[in-house]
Design goal:
Helix 8 (about 190) links the parallel strand 8 (about 170-175) and strand 9. Helix 1 (about 5-15) packs across helix 5 and helix 5 (about 95-110) packs across helix 6. The termini are far apart. By secondary structure, this protein is α/β, with parallel strands linked by helices. The strands form three sheets. It has a five-stranded parallel β-sheet with strand order 3-2-6-1-7, with helices on both faces. The chain has a five-stranded mixed β-sheet with strand order 8-9-12-10-11, with helices on both faces. The protein has helices spanning about 5-15, 25-30, 50-60, 70-75, 95-110, 130-135, 150-155, 190, 205-215, 245-255, 270-275, 280-295, and strands at about 35-40, 60-65, 80-85, 90, 90-95, 115-120, 140-145, 170-175, 195-200, 225-230, 235-240, 260-265. It contains twelve helices and twelve strands. The protein folds into two domains: about 35-150, 3-Layer(aba) Sandwich (Cobalt-precorrin-4 Transmethylase, domain 1), CATH 3.40.1010; about 150-275, Methyltransferase, Cobalt-precorrin-4 Transmethylase, Domain 2, CATH 3.30.950.10.
């Protein structure tokens, strides 16, 4: 056993002295290592959860989940399965990323089948690759279960096509927030492309800076733009405005994270293609979950 494995195993042994299951912990780790499943929970609508994701959740011994995973999806976790909240909001972490990494390794050393449940897709601004690299360094088997990322789902639920012949020939996915509140490092000229659709994750806190940077780089101030709060859920709210006016409109609407920002000419289709009416009672989602489970 490597020094890093031995250290983590020792920490678990110390922390679990009062746990009868922890007896002979290190010997169990030598004999059987579990597996970690990095699972994308999708954007919020439980009907968008993939079949593979549902299977992995139902088979898990432990589910380590983020704040963005909705209650309707958490209810799919079987009774008796251990739940661990690793919720992360901007600047407020119940567990640091380093602690999450160590937890996943420690649980796997105990022979557990661990589902690491993340909103959206694990490899799209979800730090899934960081966790996968950490698992690989420690010899832990893992599987990545893709999820429907917000850029695909939230735009569709808001009636915004990402591409459209003659209008948008490319899609840019960027983050509007950097770790430890570092200044934004953005190539404004590259992103200020009138023939592309720009999708910004986690950009609410820097929306005014983002809009001004794009306009200063040459993107027309009247470019159609939208901000989507809690897309695909019954709480979905969409604010539409020309790019220059979007920050003020969003502030007036009191939008709160998670918010996805979409900028580009295809946003102009939003009102005509807006099909989703988030008025169904919560029971409707429960019926949908039951129907999927019965199939």
């Amino acid at each position: 056993m490597s020094r890093s494995r031995r250290g983590i195993a020792t920490e678990w042994a110390k922390a679990s002295r009062n746990d009868p299951d922890a007896e002979g912990e290190i010997e169990v780790q030598r004999q059987a290592t579990g597996k970690v499943f990095l699972v994308g929970a999708g954007p919020g609508d439980p009907g968008l959860l993939t079949m593979r994701a549902r299977e992995r959740i139902e088979q898990a011994d432990v589910v380590v989940y983020d704040r963005l995973v909705g209650e309707a999806i958490l209810e799919l976790i079987p009774q008796g399965t251990t739940r661990i909240a690793a919720g992360k909001a901007c600047g407020k972490h119940s567990m640091r990323q380093e602690e999450i990494n160590e937890l996943l390794v420690s649980l796997a050393f105990r022979g557990r089948r661990v589902v690491r449940l993340k909103g959206g897709d694990p490899f799209v601004f979800g730090r899934g690759s960081e966790e996968a690299l950490y698992l690989r360094r420690h010899g832990i088997p893992f599987e990545v279960v893709p999820g429907v990322t917000a850029a695909l789902a939230c735009t569709a639920y808001a009636g915004i096509p990402l591409t459209h012949r003659g209008l948008s020939r490319a899609v840019h996915l960027v983050t509007g927030h950097f770790r430890d509140d570092q200044p934004l490092r953005i190539d404004w000229q590259r992103l200020a492309d009138p023939e592309a659709t720009l999708v910004i994750y986690m950009g609410l806190g820097n929306l005014e800076t983002l809009a001004r940077g794009l306009i200063d780089a040459g993107l027309p101030a009247e470019t159609p733009a939208a901000a989507i709060e809690r897309g695909t859920t019954l709480d979905q709210q969409v604010v539409r405005a020309p790019l220059e006016q979007l920050p003020a409109r969003v502030q007036a609407a009191l939008l709160r994270p998670p918010v996805l920002v979409v900028i580009g000419r295809t946003v102009a289709f939003s009102e005509r293609l807006d099909w989703f009416v988030p008025e169904a009672p919560p029971e409707a989602w429960q019926d949908e979950i039951g129907a999927h489970t019965a199939r």
